[in-house]
Amino acid sequence: MVPELFSERLRLRGHCANDHAAATDLWQQPEVYRFILPEAPSSQDVWLRLLRYSGLWDFFGFGYWAVEERESEAYIGQIGFADFRRGLVGFDTSVPEAGWVIHPRYSGRGLATEAMRVACDWLDRQSFAERSFCLIDPGNLPSRRIADKLGYRLALTTPMGEKTAGVYLRSRVAS
After folding, report:
1. 98: how many CB neighbours lie within 10 A of its CB?
2. In this structure, how many other beta carbons lie within 10 angstroms of the beta carbon of residue 36?
3. Please, which residues have CB within 8 angstroms of residue 97's CB and are 6 or more apart in sequence?
4. DSSP letter string, the chain
5. Dihedral pair phi/psi, residue 88, rounded to 5°
6. So what's the pLDDT on residue 175?
7. Computed over its alpha carbons, how large is the radius of gyration of the chain?
C-alpha cells in the first residue's frame, strides 16, 4: 500500500494506469531525461517504469509517488525512493536511492524540493532507512541544488556507464 502524503501545494500518491499519458508526456521532455537517459523513452518504456514503481512498494515498502498539484490535480512529476541494484563502484547501494523528476512546465517553483521534503520526512520515520542516497550528473545543477536543500552531501563520484555521477548521501533526521 502506497501511503498518500500531502504538502501545502502537493499530493503524493501511488501511480495508476491512468497516469500513463501524463507520465509519457513528462518523460518526453528533454529537460527531464537529458541527465538520466540518452534519449526520450518510448511510451512502452514509460509504462514499464510505472509498473516498476508499483513493484518497488511491494518488494521494499518504499517506492515512487505520482506528484499532483493539489489545486489543479495535475500530474506534475514522479519522486521517491528505489532499490535499483546498480552495483556502483566504491559504494554500497543497499539503502534507498532518492530520485525526482518534475515536468518543466512546473519547474522553478520549488515543487520538486517541496515534494522530496515530504518524502524524506516520511522516510525518516521508517525503521529500515538510516540513510538514503541520490545519483546526480555533475552537470545537473538544478538537481544538485535540490539535493543540497534536502541535506544530501556529495560523498564520492562513481562511474555510471560512460559517464560519471556524484553519489550524495543523507542521514536520517531525528524527529
Report:
1. 25
2. 14
3. 81, 82, 83, 84, 86, 132, 133, 134, 135
4. -PPPEE-SSEEEE---GGGHHHHHHHHT-HHHHTTT-SSPPPHHHHHHHHHHHHHHHHHHS--EEEEEETTT--EEEEEEEE------TT----SPEEEEEE-GGGTTSSHHHHHHHHHHHHHHT-TT-SEEEEEE-TT-HHHHHHHHHHT-EEEEEEEETTEEEEEEEEEPPP-
5. -70, 140
6. 62
7. 15
Mean pLDDT in consecutive groups of 10 residues from the start of the chain, 175 residues:
97 98 98 95 98 96 97 98 86 87 97 98 93 95 98 93 91 80
* Whether 50 contacts 66, CB under 8 Å: no
Residues ≥6 apart with Cβ < 8 Å to 57: 1, 2, 14, 63
Distance CA 170, CA 49 (A): 25
Report the C-alpha gap between 152 and 167 in whole angstroms: 9
Cell matching residue 9: 501545494
CB 32 within 8 A of CB 26: yes
